[in-house]
Amino acid sequence: MNIWIQKVAIPLGAIAGIILAFEVWGWQGVALAVGALVFWMLLHFNRLMQVVKRAAERPLGYVDSAVMLNAKLNKGVTLMHVVAMTRALGALQTPPNQQPELYRWTDNSHSWVEAEFLEGKLVSWQLVRPTEPTDAAS
What is the per-residue pLDDT across 55-83, written as a single tens digit (0 to 9) for each? Predict the structure, then answer.
């Protein structure tokens, strides 16, 4: 349903809004509706650029706390949303342009979260924590 909204309903709604604006206010309404659509697209573009700018300032695949990232993840969120949460690009674990994509974020304690994305949406993830070394002297 969500893909249907993104691929069909939003463009149809935009076209319907432009047509409605023309019927009510003429060409001035079309200019207003198109201006509003451009403004909306610029807001999304600006958010994307902010996320990428913040991610560029951090090491690839790094996160402050893998445990906290694991707790915050939800199925269906986009890769951009996860990059915004971690403020870092994930380290790609699969060959490029292969679906599903597997990304890894690691913290200072060497714990990591591996997240699987299908068509840019989070499908599954798992937290892996390093095992504690056993004390052989005891």
Answer: 999 899 999 999 999 999 999 999 999 99
Q: How do the domains of the chain map onto residue ranges? A: 2-55, 60-128
Q: Which two tokens stand for residue 123?
A: 């499908």
What tokens appear for 27 in the block? 């060409």
Half-sphere exposure of 60 (CA within 13 A, CB side): 4
Q: Are 125 and 69 in contact (CB under 8 A)?
A: no
Q: Where are the beta strands (DSSP E) in 24-108?
A: 91-92, 101-106
Residue with tokens 């999304």: 44
What is the architecture of the domain spanning 60-128? 2-Layer Sandwich (3.30)
